[in-house]
Design a protein that fits this description.
Two copies of one chain form a homodimer.
Chain A (H helix, E strand, L loop, with lengths): L2 E3 L1 H7 L8 E7 L5 E7 L1 H10 L3 E4 L4 E4 L8 E8 L6 E7 L14 E3 L2
Parallel strand pairs in A: 2-7
Antiparallel strand pairs in A: 2-3, 4-5, 6-7
Amino acid sequence: MSETITAEDFLSAVSFNTEGLVPAIAQDAKTGLVLMMAWMNRETLKATLETGEVTYWSRSRGEVWRKGATSGHTQKLVEAWVDCDGDTLLMKVEQTGPACHTGAVSCFYRKRGP
Amino acid sequence: MSETITAEDFLSAVSFNTEGLVPAIAQDAKTGLVLMMAWMNRETLKATLETGEVTYWSRSRGEVWRKGATSGHTQKLVEAWVDCDGDTLLMKVEQTGPACHTGAVSCFYRKRGP
């Protein structure tokens, strides 16, 4: 129950917010672990699709952020998915090293206890 | 490599945006399938943690949205996770029926082809 669409249709399907951004969830393609969520603009989404190097827009630094450019903890794109209303992306990736800047495998390392 | 924190600390760890919202990713607790992403405010996050019924804030309708309230396609909370900087949540859920309003199992049913 999935559709395969062209890269062009994929880009057209994405609905960027008023800041020109869309949230992108990164999931480990092998383990299914959800690694992080960050933002992309049209430029970094295109770069991600074209190069296979997952690239975000850093809202805090206001610049293009090729994941792992400084840390070496890159994400190689395996599959790119867009949701029903085009306002969220799911990137299945091959993660090198920890995804989180804290050194944790995933940014989601804190869990609500009982 | 995970920490368990109290519900109180969990709520304190969350950083709501200027609209008072935080994105919440819903993942099927059993299969690992990423189902959808939607938004919560403090009230609906508290309701989710207290009742175990995953509850969002509908930005389009401007109202509390207990998932499945009309469709019956509810999400029962299994685990709640918060990310490193507190600006994204990951809810592992037990999903009844399809998660997507289109009838798809997951909202992410469109994939970029080669």
